[in-house]
Design a protein that fits this description.
Helix content: 40-55%
Number of strands: 20
């Protein structure tokens, strides 16, 4: 083999998720113990002084977000189950008579029962929790539809009906339906999972079920003390309480609600009212297929993503409390006052609403929310679109996205609705929505023919940070080198969401400018940005960085690792900790983390792919091959698994190596590393002509890909041609 034919490196299967912390070094001397934190006292302690608010809270869906099951609840709120519900090989029946309260499961003549311990929800659906082994509270397979008064298959209802086909249905015992792991802290107050990674057990506690007063106002002990000590009719100046409401900025109030009402990635478990959302969470965008390409809800998205891009939120003048009370109620439920919510900013349209809506006065179609906040349903849950955007039936025609017109006029189709809005509006307000949606749809399918327009939208992140961040995440598989200057520029965007997405994108091959941007972002004002930058630098040897930048990088790295420690029960945390260890050269430690990730989610493929790399570096090729074979059993079309298996077999089985490399390239034609590896293997097997044909488009589209250019030039010289 010529000296220049070096085997390509195995490729890490890197995702957009996070990792776990190392134990910090012991201090040189014993530090003074920190002052005791103020204690939580529970909502009942608020009742004596705030009876009115207590009653409003205790009967609200916030206060009743979770509650213990009892016979009285079943008798008053649940209907009988008329027939068994069959799921897979089992038949299920809820037994709710006096003194019962359990699920009956019958399989192959065997009967097993699961007691109902807790009840979640109640606005649209009641879910039921049962205790399982290792401290888990698990969502039972049957749920109750409140509006239809029906029992149904809980997990089956949550299958996503994506354009390429429905997503697989999970078992009710899978981790996303484990309360401790999946539901976490948005149905109870002051939750501590108390997860022990060594035994994979939970000892979960909470102050009280439901979302209590102290969730939004902070610990009440000191507040009660100073108020009780104050003279009558002379309240203390410092109430020792987080006031919220008018005391908060609009951003603080939105961030407080967003802690639960968002499709999110947690960085900490310590968010407190008044703190910034992006110091504790990341926000999922349109890179996720639970959104239609135009941003409308397809699956479950929990409001904040659409609200964050609404004109109301972007104005900086409104927050959730404009329309909602602190207990979650809608302030404008009275149909006669429905449009008053919009009147402060849109009085001209509200005062003459029917001329704007083209619907009769007093009709449902004459309400602002009917067109600007249409309700859709997924998994029996109804939710209102909070983007406030007008109906775009053209997006329904293009992508199946819902539109308000045909949600009301069910006897009409989207073509009729499209004709109506075009006849009513001289300006084609749908065109920009469609243009952006097409860029999202194209990026999702790996079509980069509109890359220039995508990069323009990334550069315009000021107008829509969610959209810009989503495109940055979707651009990661793009092999076109033109993207890098735009991504580097996005690292200086005003929005921390966009800067963080840019840092993530720079993981995949930072240029010197990109490396400098990542180092700079390690000192960003927002924790999210620092964490994403540190994660992107996980695979960069510290000796490659300027010594003056190391302190900021190390501080950000500590935050990155701490963000993974916050949720060690997530497979993604263990997986990304493995990536960090592998990137820093500790393959043995990486193996332990990848194995833990596999234990937490046996269906996850990425830990198996990266486990194979760690095992290969430890000189265990047979074990590495077994890991990749298992990955391909779980996901036969996984490109990184095909690619890495091809490289692993290159020395011992050239024919199989070529076969797997071809499959990887066919699955991911946008990835130049796969094409380079295939060309390398072809050249080594004497098929230089085909190797040149594979490399030619790579060199044309990625002139910055030095390895491909060198191989291409050497093959040309071998063939007697000029490079």
């Amino acid at each position: 083999m010529p000296h220049w034919m070096h085997l390509p490196a195995l490729v890490l299967c890197l995702g957009s998720v996070l990792a776990v912390p190392e134990a910090s070094a012991k201090p040189a001397q014993k530090a003074a113990p920190p002052p005791a934190a103020p204690a939580f006292t529970g909502s009942a302690s608020c009742r004596d002084c705030h009876e009115k608010f207590y009653k409003l809270w205790s009967t609200s869906f916030h206060g009743l977000a979770m509650r213990p099951y009892d016979d009285a609840l079943a008798a008053s709120l649940l209907g009988p189950q008329e027939a068994d519900i069959v799921i897979g090989q089992a038949a299920y029946r809820m037994r709710l008579g006096a003194g019962e309260g359990f699920l009956e499961e019958r399989t192959d003549g065997q009967t097993k029962t699961y007691p109902i311990a807790q009840v979640l929800g109640g606005k649209n659906v009641f879910y039921f929790l049962t205790p399982l082994e290792r401290g888990r509270l698990q969502t039972l397979p049957l749920a109750y539809d409140v509006r239809r008064k029906q029992w149904y298959d809980m997990a089956g209802s949550a299958a996503r009906h994506f354009p390429g086909g429905p997503s697989p249905t999970l078992s009710w015992k899978d981790w996303p339906y484990t309360f401790n792991t999946g539901c976490y802290g948005c149905h109870v107050s002051q939750l501590s999972t108390n997860y022990d990674p060594r035994t994979d057990t939970y000892a979960t506690t909470w102050t009280e079920p439901g979302i209590n007063c102290e969730t939004c106002h902070g610990p009440g002990q000191e507040h009660i003390r100073v108020c009780q000590a104050a003279p009558k009719n002379n309240p203390p100046k410092d109430m020792k309480l987080i006031r919220g409401g008018s005391a908060f900025t609009h951003a603080q109030q939105n961030d407080l609600c967003g802690a639960c009402h968002a499709k999110t990635v947690p960085l900490t478990v310590s968010f407190a009212p008044g703190e910034r959302y992006f110091d504790h969470f990341d926000l999922i965008g349109y890179e996720n297929p639970d959104f239609h390409p135009d941003g409308r809800d397809l699956g479950e998205n929990y409001t904040m993503t659409s609200w964050a891009r609404s004109p109301c939120a972007l104005s900086g003048q409104l927050d959730c409390m404009h329309c909602h009370t602190s207990s979650g109620r809608y302030k404008f439920a009275d149909p006669a006052k429905a449009n008053d919510a919009c009147k402060p900013c849109h009085a001209d349209r509200v005062d003459n609403a029917s001329s704007h809506t083209r619907h009769p006065e007093g009709s449902p179609g004459n309400r602002c929310v009917s067109c600007h906040m249409p309700a859709t349903e997924f998994a029996r849950m109804r939710r209102s679109d909070h983007s406030m955007l007008p109906p775009t039936p053209a997006a329904t025609l293009a992508y199946g996205s819902p539109n308000a017109c045909t949600l009301c006029h069910a006897d009409k189709d989207a073509a009729w609705a499209d004709g109506q809005v075009r006849a009513w509006h001289a300006n084609d307000y749908q065109a920009p929505v469609l243009a952006r949606a097409e860029l999202v749809a194209a990026a999702r399918r790996g079509d980069w023919s509109g890359l220039a327009a995508m990069l323009d939208c990334v550069a315009d992140g000021k107008s829509d940070a969610v959209y810009a961040a989503s495109l940055l995440r979707l651009l990661r598989p793009c092999a076109d080198g033109r993207k890098w200057p735009a991504i580097v520029a996005a690292a200086s965007a005003p929005s921390p969401l966009v800067r963080a997405a840019a840092a993530e994108a720079l993981t995949d091959g930072p240029t010197p400018e990109g490396l400098a941007a990542l180092v700079r972002l390690c000192a960003d004002d927002y924790r999210l940005v620092r964490v994403r930058a540190a994660a992107a630098l996980s695979g960069v040897p510290r000796q490659a960085l300027d010594a003056t930048s190391l302190p900021a990088v190390e501080r950000a790295t500590a935050e990155f690792l701490a963000s993974l420690a916050a949720r060690p029960d997530l497979w993604t945390s263990q997986y990304n900790l493995g990536n960090h260890a592998l990137g820093q050269g500790d393959a043995q430690r990486a193996v332990g983390y990848y194995e833990k990730a596999r234990l937490l989610d046996p269906a996850a493929v990425a830990p198996l792919v990266n486990l194979s790399i760690a095992l290969g570096r430890l000189g265990q090729p047979e074990a590495a091959e077994q890991a990749l074979a298992e990955a391909l059993r779980l996901a036969p079309d996984d490109a990184p698994a095909h690619f890495n298996l091809g490289l692993l077999l290159a020395a011992t089985n050239p024919e199989d190596a070529l076969r797997f490399a071809r499959q990887a390239g066919g699955l991911r034609p946008d990835n130049p590393r796969y094409a380079y590896a295939l060309a390398f293997l072809l050249a080594r097997s004497g098929q230089s002509g085909e190797a040149l044909a594979v490399l030619r488009p790579v060199v044309a589209s990625r002139p910055d890909y030095a390895e491909a250019a060198r191989l291409y030039g050497r093959l040309l010289r071998q063939a007697g041609q000029k490079p």
